[in-house]
Every structure is written in structure tokens, then in C-alpha cells.
Amino acid sequence: MEDNKRTEQIIGCEIKVHRSFGPGLLESAYQECLFYELQKTGLFVEKEKALPLIYEAVKLDCGYRIDLMVEKQVVVEVKSVEALNDVHTAQVLTYLKLSNCRIGLLINFNVTQLTTGIKRLYNKYYLEPLS
User: Fold this and answer.
1) What is the pTM of this model?
2) What is the pLDDT along the chain (131 residues), one digit of tens a residue?
3) Which residue of 28, 31, 68, 119 could cross-link 78, Cys pair, CB 3.0 to 4.6 Å?
4) Per residue, what are the HEC states of 24-65?
5) Distance (Å, whole) CA 83 – CA 79
6) Beta-ladder partners of 55
7) Domain regions of the chain by residue span
8) Rounded to whole angstroms, how far apart are CA atoms 98 and 94?
9) What burial letters (b/e) apply to 98-110, b meaning 16+ CB within 10 Å?
10) Nearest Cα to 124, choosing from 99, 96, 105?
């Protein structure tokens, strides 16, 4: 599945969850609902995926956890905050770099219209897997 179709499918699930509850829930509630909704579509989804840091060929567990990883290719970071800021963007960009995923979706569910809370990010360090 190509990147645009995959992210459209993910965003469709996010909109469905947001329509059900609107703003105001905790991030963990939105994450659980989105995880359930994505699984219903048949996508492979990992929740709270551990992300080690490799430093000088040593694998370090620094406690990084990706909220949702979809099809081992898209990082989804769920927020429920007043406004997204640069730290949230940096967090997703870091996850993209460390996981070598191409696309990340930063989602703020604490908005009246979800489309204003979606930020699509790209990994400029992405390396195509060898075939």
C-alpha cells in the first residue's frame, strides 16, 4: 500500500474516534480507541512500541515508546493538548529517525475539528530497505 493511501486510512480512523468523543479525553483513551479502530481495518498495529537508541554499536533502552506504529512504516503520536508545539514535532522526528520509518502523524485530539490537529511529518534521514 502506498504512503498516501495508508495515511488516509489512518486519518479516517482518527476522525472516526474524534467524532465519537470530541476533545477532552486523556491521550491514553484516544490511543486505545485508535488502536482498536486501526486493528478493525486489518492494519498491523503495534502499541507502545519500544524504541531503543543505538550509540556506538550499543543498544540502549532509554524508555522511548512509539504510541502506535502502523504496518511497521508509519509512526503515530497521539496528543491531547491545548496546542501542538515544536517539542511535539521534534519528538516525532526523533522517532522517525530512530525507527527508520518514512512518515509520522502527530495528532492532537484536543481540538474541535480534528483536521486542524493533524500534522504529517517526513523523515529526511529515511533509508530504503535493501531488497
Assistant:
1) 0.92
2) 688 899 999 999 999 999 999 999 999 999 999 999 999 999 999 999 999 888 888 888 888 999 999 999 999 999 999 999 999 999 999 999 999 999 999 999 999 999 999 999 999 988 887 66
3) 31
4) CCCHHHHHHHHHHHHHHCCCCEEEEEECCEEECCEEECCCCE
5) 9
6) 58
7) 3-122
8) 6
9) bbebbbbbbbbbb
10) 96
Residue type, 65: R
Q: How far apart are CA 108 and CA 110, in angstroms?
A: 6
* Nearest CA among 83, 112, 119 for reference residue 18: 112
Q: Which amino acid, one-letter code, is at 10? A: I
Cα separation values, 12 from 8, 86, 118, 120, 131, Å: 6, 25, 12, 14, 31
Cell numbers for 84: 501542538
b (16+ CB within 10 A) / e for 41-75: eebebebebebeeeeeeeeeeeebebbbbbeebbb
